[in-house]
Amino acid sequence: MSHTTGSAAVTGVRQARKRRTRQSLLDAALALLEEQSLSGLGLREVTRAAGIAPTAFYRHFRDMADLGVALVEESLGSLHATVRANLAATVDSERRIAGTVELVARLVREHPAHVRFLARERHGGVRPVREAIGGELDRFAVEVAAELARLPEASDWRREDLLMLARLYVDLMVTTASALLAAGPDAAAGERVEEEARRRLRLVALGSRHWPG
Amino acid sequence: MSHTTGSAAVTGVRQARKRRTRQSLLDAALALLEEQSLSGLGLREVTRAAGIAPTAFYRHFRDMADLGVALVEESLGSLHATVRANLAATVDSERRIAGTVELVARLVREHPAHVRFLARERHGGVRPVREAIGGELDRFAVEVAAELARLPEASDWRREDLLMLARLYVDLMVTTASALLAAGPDAAAGERVEEEARRRLRLVALGSRHWPG
DNA sequence: TCGGTGAGCTGACAACTGTGCACTGACTGG
DNA sequence: CCAGTCAGTGCACAGTTGTCAGCTCACCGA
User: Fold this and answer.
1) Straight-line distance from CA B8 to C1' D23, in Å?
2) Predicted local confidence at residue A91, as pLDDT
3) What DSSP line would sit under B171-191, residue for residue?
């Protein structure tokens, strides 16, 4: 037990340095993954790009799969709060739709490599990474369902229908993100994708307003 | 006796043999791709599994990317007619929905490796393969839109809304296919996925019946 | 029947891979 | 202050990779 002086600086120069090279490994891997997939990425390739010796890799990750899981956490971990805030913010349907699409668009604009990684490895060749992404997306769906349940017009929905709708929304946003990636840097093409995404959401919202038929 | 001059055999023993080993290359690659992705698959690995010498690979494909494109064609090429027939068959909405989901389910059941390959390489690390899959899916969307246009209730739809709806349907079926793969061989889990897919389609059909709001 | 074609083979090459081992030296807690 | 920890290094190893050149020999058309 630490009955030490109680200083605030717990970091330690050593651990900080370690975290820095760990981060440079993650960055290097992410950059290399823009043009190939994780199962084709070599350990030496990554360490070379990160500027360290190959064997130093093992100080941070057991595997490339291990590194991949860390990348998933980095890509998706901080997003839950954002999504939750966005959903809770507005009640008006049209505003909610516009805000959600804008959120996805900004995510793709600001972190294209992360999004590309997720799209690629969601069904990729490395099981632990696949499962990490899938689990994270499931968590998103549950959170979205919880927010949907707070809307008055969903008060009489069955729980499973609510989850179905939430998962549908999540899937729509994921495919929107990949479509935005595929559209590339062309602003006009990106705007077309966003507009189509909004229309899709409008259609689904319209359907759910008349549910269950 | 054996060498009848006017035989109908247009194939030729030689070309037939070549096609057979080409096919065994495709089969071997597909089998190996169940547990990794194309950009991590080695030429030697494939030829070893196919039972031929490494250099013989070049007699059939220039690249692994080339082989991948051939796999896309094999996986998706024959599907257009099936989809078209399925859509044209029934007019009743509920029957159409059930039939479509059943078609996807059967596809996954009968050709799981092909479907897995498509899901994996749709956003995978090999550009030509990505583009081949994307182009094929676009063609599907156009075909679906053409079939939708024949329905009386869609007579007053704008062309772009029709395409939006068609693309939505295609994306829904693609995500349904991956979900079925993820569900694995468990029949109960598969049935749950199918039921949710039907509900999704019902919701979308409901929304489109009230379009544009 | 005979020369040409071409699918598939063998052997070899340099380049690259993941990982084990022993080492250094800056940091650390007591 | 000093002994211990541990991130990072260098070297070595056995395998594997893609590809080249040249060979065989079953098939082909004429």
Assistant:
1) 35
2) 66
3) HHHHHHHHHHHHHTT-HHHHH
Residue nearest to nucleotide C8 (CA to C1'): B56
Of B128, B210, B184, B174, which is closest to residue A127 (Cα–Cα)?
A: B184
**Could you give the count of Cα atoms lying within 13 Å of B118 in the half-sphere of its Cβ?**
25
Residue-level pLDDT at A88 = 84
Backbone angles phi, psi at A151, to 5 degrees: -75, 140
Number of helices and strands (H, E) in chain A? 9, 0
Domain count, chain A: 2
**pLDDT 10s digits, A119-147:** 999 999 999 999 999 999 999 999 999 99
Q: How far is the CA of B56 from the C1' of D20 (A)?
A: 13
Domain span including residue A118: 75-209
End-to-end CA distance of chain B: 75
Which residues in chain A, range 43-82, keep a C-beta under 7 Å from any nucleic strand C atom? 43-45, 54-55, 57, 63-64
Q: Are residues B169 and B191 in the same domain?
A: yes
Do B137 and B173 have their domain in common?
Answer: yes
Residue B4: the pLDDT is: 35
Q: Tokens standing for B124? A: 């995978």
Show the tokens assigned to A85: 């805030």
Q: Which of residues 26-65 of A touch B (CB under 8 A)?
A: 33, 35-41
The answer to whether the CB atoms of B164 and A40 lie below 8 A apart is: no
B190 lies in a domain? yes
